Amino acid sequence: MQNPSSHPHAHLHEVDPAADSRAHPHVHDPESLRRIVNRLARIEGHIRGIKTMVQESRPCPDVLVQVAAVRGALDRVARIILDEHLTECIGRAAEDGNIEAEIAELKAALDRFLP
Questions:
Q1: What confidence tens digit (pLDDT) does each residue in 20-67 have?
Q2: Measured between alpha carbons, how far is 38 from 67 in angstroms, rounded to an integer?
Q3: Residue 20: what pLDDT?
Q4: What per-residue confidence (pLDDT) applies to 26?
Q5: Which own/partner contact pairs does 99-108 have at CB distance under 8 Å and 24+ positions apart?
Q6: How many CB atoms lie within 10 A of CB 78?
Q7: Which residues pair with 27 in a beta bridge?
C-alpha cells in the first residue's frame, strides 16, 4: 500500500466508524483531480449567481431553472468521481486484497448519496 504522504495528490477517506475505525490512502490521477476541481469551481460560481438572483428578486422559475442546472452539474461530478472510484480505487483494493472493506465503504457512501 502506498504511503499517502509520498504522493502530492493523496488524501484519506474516512471509513464508516461502525464498519472500521481506520482510514485508507486514496491516490488519484492529478489530471483527473484538476478536472473535478475545475468543475466544482464552475458550480461554485453558478451557485453564487443563483444567490445573486435571489437577492435581486428574480422570477422564481428563472431561479429554479438555474438550481436544476447546478443539480445536473453536481450529478455529473458525482458520476465522474464514482466512475474513477470503480476503475481506480476498487481495482487497487482488489489487488491489495481488501476489496470487501472498499465495497462496504462504497455501499455506505451510496446509501448517503442516493435518495
A1: 434 456 677 889 899 999 999 999 999 999 999 999 999 999 999 999
A2: 19
A3: 44
A4: 65
A5: 101/15, 101/19, 101/20, 101/24, 102/24, 104/16, 104/19, 104/20, 105/13, 105/15, 105/16, 105/19, 105/20, 108/16, 108/19
A6: 12
A7: 10
